[in-house]
Every structure is written in C-alpha cells, then in structure tokens.
Amino acid sequence: MSSIEDWYERARMGMGAMAEQSKAIEERAREARASVSDKSGRIKVTVDRHGKLMGLSIHPRAFEVMSAEALAETILTISSEAATALGRRIVGEYRKVWGVDASSEDVRRGAIDPLSFARQVRRRNFGDPPRTTG
C-alpha cells in the first residue's frame, strides 16, 4: 500500500471510531441533567441539555427572606448557570473525541461550517495527507 492509501485507511478507521464515540455521547446527552443551587442553598434547579427546567426545589425559608422578584431572578440565574455547566460538560466530551471545540450537533444546526469542521478534525487527528507525485 502507498503512503496515501495508508493515511486514508488510518483516517477512515479513526473517523469511524470517532463517529461511534460521538453517537454514545449524543445518547448520554439526551438524558443529561445538571443541577445548581443558589448561594444560600435554599433554591435548587435541575435542567436538561436544552436548558429546560426539569426540577425546582425551594426551601420555605426562601419565601420569607426573598421578594417574589428576587426569587424569580435567582431561579432564572441559576437555571442559566446549570444549562451553561451542562453545555460545557457535553462539549468537553466531544472535545476529547474530536479534538476541536464543536460537536456533530453544531454542524447539523449550522453553527459551524461542515467542511471547516471536517478539516479541523482531519488535521488535528490525522494530519494532512501525504503529497503524491506524478
């Protein structure tokens, strides 16, 4: 086999393995949750990977020491923090597999150009293909 064929086979096999790992990440991400509590520990939220509120716990004391506006603001703030933390965790898993700061979901959503993503992944994981002469 020529060096270009060797490179191609190595890249093809590597990309297949990376795709399987990404599929596993996506399956885990579907069920992923993140929880965050406020500083006092009286309010706790749990969100899914889309930032949807999946759980809310408010200690009765919070109603005594916070106004309705402050309570609402706290819930919104810690919900955002939980969603951000979960997003970073999921992207971190993709980064370990792909070696770039993007996921296949980013490509599907159009958040990153597919060709640019493929080039980044190829260069990061397999280098450029050997030059051929002829």
Provide the structure class.
alpha+beta
Number of strands: 3
Low-confidence stretches: none
Instruction: Indicate the percent of residues in helices.
Output: 55-70%
Mean pLDDT: 84
Number of helices: 5
What's the CATH H-level homologous superfamily of the largest domain?
A: Nucleoid-associated protein YbaB-like domain
Short description:
By secondary structure, this protein is of the alpha+beta class.
Structural topology:
Blueprint: H1 3-31, E1 33-37, E2 43-48, E3 53-58, H2 60-65, H3 68-98, H4 104-109, H5 114-126
Antiparallel strand pairs: 1-2, 2-3
Helix pairs in contact: 1-3
Overview of the structural elements:
By secondary structure, the chain is α+β, with helices and mostly antiparallel strands. The protein folds into two domains: 27-98, Ybab, Chain: A, CATH 3.30.1310; 100-129, no CATH class. The chain has helices at 3-31, 60-65, 68-98, 104-109, 114-126, and strands at 33-37, 43-48, 53-58. It has a three-stranded antiparallel sheet. Strand 1 (33-37) and strand 2 (43-48) form a beta hairpin. It is rod-shaped. The two termini are 16 Å apart. The model has no long low-confidence stretch (mean pLDDT 84).
Task: List key phrases describing it.
single chain; 134 residues; alpha+beta; 2 domains; 3-stranded antiparallel sheet; 63% helix; rod-shaped
